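[Meeting: bench + compute handoff]

Bench side (C.D.) handed over the final construct sequence. Compute side (W.E.) agreed to return the predicted structure before the next meeting so the bench team could plan truncations. Sequence as handed over:
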Amino acid sequence: MSSPDIYFPNVGIEIEKLNRIAVSIFGLPVYWYGIIITMGIMTGIYLTMREAKKTGQNVDIYYDFAIIVILVALIGARAYYVAFSWHEYKDDLLKIFAIREGGIAIYGAIIASVITAIIYTRVRKIKFGIFADTVIPSLIIGQAIGRWGNFFNKEAFGGYTNNLFAMAIKKDVASYIPDSLVGKDVLYKGAAYIQVHPTFLYESLWNLAVFFILILYRKHKKYDGELLVLYLIGYSLGRVWIEGLRTDQLIISGLNMPVSQLLSAILLVCATIYEIYKILSKKRLTNNV
């Protein structure tokens, strides 16, 4: 009786084998994580170009930005992870460049991308608000797709749960075993499992919902740049509670708090205040006309 790598006990789904490596080319492994991240990026680029063309913008502006921002986002994602995991790299700085060993964070990519977009739009003399509103729905759908890379890596999960979406990972193939789950094995078909919150799934579904909300709302936006603000509100709101469930958090030294949870809370508050301010300002302007 063989035991699956992963199964979902409350929905009756079993996955016999879930390999991290998709294929080897000349002896070099190609990981599913990289393939899925690439799929997310390509989907985002396609949707951005489609929206730019649909709204009569210069598509080349977005092509040029895509070429620049992919590299910048990767650097930002790595820098963010290294900064908050410095204890892993301080004694061997060359490990910073060993990205194939893992260690990137989406918030680093987002921060680097936004800064790059601000600089890029100023250099190209185009409105940042319009540019951001064109790109943002593509960013969130790319994030929704990219989270499935964590599934293949068997990472980015939470603590124990027995809810509808509970996911059991065979201990032999899990990327790590959280301290909170030591001694809490679940036995199935003769194998030991950890049963966890599939937080990658929660975030993917949340991001998908945010994407559809932005798509439905974009024709009704009240000012240029509003989709960016709503993205920050929507994504941050979901990340605040999802990050609290995860067992692989990057912790702020001294505060004993997940950095991405704190950052999400700050962005949520700031973006909400800004949205309220813009709406009230528009109402006052309308009333004065």
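W.E. noted at the follow-up: The chain has two domains: 1-18+156-197, 19-153+198-288. C.D. will use this when planning the next construct.
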